[in-house]
Amino acid sequence: MLTLYSYPGLFGVADNNGYGLKVFAFLKLAGVPFRHEHLFDASAAPRGQLPYIDDEGVAIGDSDTILAHLSASRQLTIEVELTAAQLDENLQFSRLLDDLYWVMSFSRWKDERFWPAFRDALLTEHSSLDAAGLDKARQYNFQRYAAQGIGRFEPEAAYARGLADLALLARRVPPEGFVHGPRPTSADAAIYGFLANIHFSPIPTPLKLFLTAQPNLVRHCEAIHGAVMASAPS
After folding, report:
1. Which residues does 186 contact at the CB level (< 8 Å), separation at least 6?
2. How many domains does the chain have?
3. Contacts of 121 (CB under 8 A, 6+ apart)
4. Is 21 in a helix, a strand, or coil?
5. Is there a domain that residue 187 lies in?
6. Residue 50 lies in a domain
7. Which residues contact 18 (CB under 8 A, 6 or more apart)?
């Protein structure tokens, strides 16, 4: 059976990282049977990054590559009715969420106002972690943020990027149904992966406060959450 390797859950979602939750949601929405293995150590993953899948002994990383592989290898019909323009829009959503990822991560690990609550939530939910290890992970993330660029922003400027991303999503996600109609597609799985990690967190970051005030985004997130968590794999 196919195995998904991703970070552990937090705040009631299946993966506390948007990319892993995106793949999890896609698998569930597409009806692909799989096992879900949670890891903190990504050293054995392709490119040293989670998530990845093991499909009959072949390891495949990168969330978009995983989704493309699954669609082709299993002839999935989740996107079969989409037009070329809608598929192009899915790619645009993916790139937008790449930007939102960095701001969401910044809010958890970098911002001194919210880091203690995030750290304590991880320690409470995952007994294998300790404060020293999380401090080490935090310093590693600081290096990543500096290299990517978000770490060079003041918090207000960083959040301005993320809020602009969320505002665009709020303009594109309909009040009913899903992005491309009555059935969810990979775009909805991707959007859920990131929004769920903001919406279900109790930590009052600027991203959380903005999202809470968008009823269409909240409805979309909770609808996908109900669908994918109805029967989580072992």
Report:
1. 26, 67, 71, 78, 79, 90
2. 1
3. 10, 11, 203
4. helix
5. yes
6. yes
7. 97, 100, 101, 104, 193, 194, 197
Distance of alpha carbon 71 from alpha carbon 161, whole angstroms: 32
Q: Which two tokens stand for residue 52?
A: 């990845």
Residue 100 lies in a domain: yes
> Tens-of-pLDDT digits for all 234 residues of the chain?
999 999 999 999 999 999 999 999 999 999 999 999 999 989 889 999 999 999 999 999 999 999 999 999 999 999 999 999 999 999 999 999 999 999 999 999 999 999 999 999 999 999 999 999 999 999 999 999 999 999 999 999 999 999 999 999 999 999 999 999 999 999 999 999 999 999 999 999 999 999 999 999 999 999 999 999 986 554
- What is residue 13's three-state secondary structure? strand
What's the token pair of residue 150? 């978000």
List, as one string, the DSSP characters of 117-131. HHHHHHHHH-TT--H
Inside any domain, residue 154: yes
